[in-house]
Amino acid sequence: MGAFHAYDIRGIYNLDFDKDTAYKVGYFLPELLSAEKVLVGRDARVSSPEIHEYLLKGITDAGADVYDIGLSTTPMVYFGTANYGFKASVQITASHNPAEYNGMKVSRENALPVGLDTGLGQIKLWIESGRECPKTDKPGQVFPMDIRKDYLDFLLKYKGDWSDLKIAVDVSNGMASLFVRDIFGDQPSYIYEDMDGRFPNHEPNPLVPANVEDLKKLVCRTKADIGIIYDGDADRVMFVDENSRFISPDLMIAVLGHYFLEERKDEGAVLQDIRSSKAVGEYLTPMGGKMNTWRVGRAFAALKLRELDGIFGGELAGHYYFRDFFYSDSGLLASILILNVVAKMKLKGISLSSLIARIEKYQNSGEINFRLEHKREAMDAVRDWFLNHEEATAYMDFDGYRVEFPQWWFNIRPSNTEPYLRFLCEATSKELLDEKVEKVREIVARFS
Questions:
Q1: What is the pLDDT of residue 154?
Q2: Counting Cβ atoms within 10 Å, is residue 98 exposed (0-12), middle (13-18) or buried (19+)?
Q3: CA-CA distances (angstroms) from residue 140 to 27, 77, 84, 187, 315?
């Protein structure tokens, strides 16, 4: 049962989970969420049809009806869940993982995420305990449902005037291909637009630098003002500037402030994850944004944004959450809003790289992964060493540790899904950054 993680069910299909798991998840889900009907969507991976077949069989054998929207982005399922009042939904996807992976993202009423601590753990327990799945006397039915137009209409409400922009788009052979032409039209330059769950051109993970290389070349070749790249299920999006430089996704939280705080004059909370650059808050606070820092992952961020009734938020991994979108994340909506900002900046003679230069004030290490067994001990050792040698200005301990000092800060946290300890830090100079990273490597090496 290694496919059950903090945020979702995900792993190598027929190794970490199989069709029997899919059936049982489907069977137990209506009981878990007190749902008489379940919305289901799926991505284009080769294994998705089989998972879909057995998931639906489990749901209907338990006596609940299925409303099947077919091929979909993950945010389209969130939209369907909240917009039409479903108490339960499942998107079959492995998001940004390679083609041999698959999984299920489960949501409850109002598109709230169901994670390991909020329901998936109970399903895991029922499966591992061998709980039986007797077929009900009144099995549910499967109803095809087409919500594509409603979702597209919702997205298009936010579209601005991009007529002066040159846009390059890498669809990653993923689910964004369902909508990109309808939203952006034929004017942008596209690559890897065909939906193909084998991902023949590159893995659908824009955080891996090699996967962004073709978009960078496309931006350079077409002299684009901005490059956009989606992950496999289109809940994440990342960007490249006009110089083909990849933009750290947390900095785009600051860019979104120009739309929500400056243009719309919204007031309230803005959410960032514990890894976000200090520069984000320094940029948004003068605009009126009330910064809140929270744990990594949709299972935590979507709930927190709703609790705060926050305006919007984002993560280093390229998720962007919006009050306007049921406090959920959408890669397509994020790209629409960011294009609106970039288009208006261009009219003022400000390029995307110039805008990012105004935000980006620190040297950043990027996320460094240490593979080791004794993650907790290593984390504590790093924290304790620096707290004993320097005066901290801020301390957070809800997702690993984030410790801030006058000229630098770090976050160290265990991965929720992999055997890694993840470390990231920022400093006011490259020399200081290198010094701190080297010290952390020295401390962590003792636990390898």
A1: 98
A2: middle
A3: 11, 20, 19, 45, 39
Give the pLDDT confidence score for residue 176 in this predicted structure: 98
CB–CB of 354/256 below 8 Å? no
Pairing, β 112-113 against β 101-108: antiparallel
pLDDT at 417: 63
Alpha helices in 38-131 (DSSP H): 48-61, 74-83, 120-128
Axis-axis angle for helices 331-347, 148-156 (nearest 10)? 30
Which value, to the nearest 10 degrees, does the dihedral of the CA atoms of residues 240, 243, 244, 250 take? -30
Q: How many residues does the chain have?
A: 448
Q: How far apart are the first and last CA of the chain?
A: 27
- What six digits make up the tokens of 328? 């959920």
- What pTM did the predictor assign? 0.95
Cite the active site residues: 95
Express each pLDDT in 3-15 by its tens digit: 998 889 999 999 9
pLDDT in tens, 97-114: 999 999 999 999 999 999
Compute, in degrees rounded to 10, the torsion defined by CA atoms 253, 162, 160, 241: 0
Question: Residue written as tokens 């009050």?
Answer: 323
**């962590």: which residue's tokens?**
444
* Helical (H) or strand (E) element with 101: strand 101-108
- In the chain, the amino acid numbered 13 is Y
Residue 299 has pLDDT above 90, yes or no: no
Q: How far is CA 297 from CA 5, 185, 319, 330, in A?
A: 11, 32, 9, 14
Tell me how far apart the alpha carbons of residues 177 and 186 are, in angstroms, rounded to a whole number: 13
CB neighbours of 304 closer than 8 A, spacing ≥ 6?
271, 292, 294, 295, 310, 313
Task: Answer whether 73's CB lies under 8 Å from 235's CB.
Answer: yes
Tens digit of pLDDT for each residue in 163-196? 999 999 999 999 999 999 999 999 999 999 999 9
Closest CA to 251 of 209, 226, 271, 279: 279
Residue 364 backbone dihedrals phi, psi, to 5 degrees: -120, 135
* Helical pair 19-33 and 48-61, crossing angle rounded to 10 deg: 40
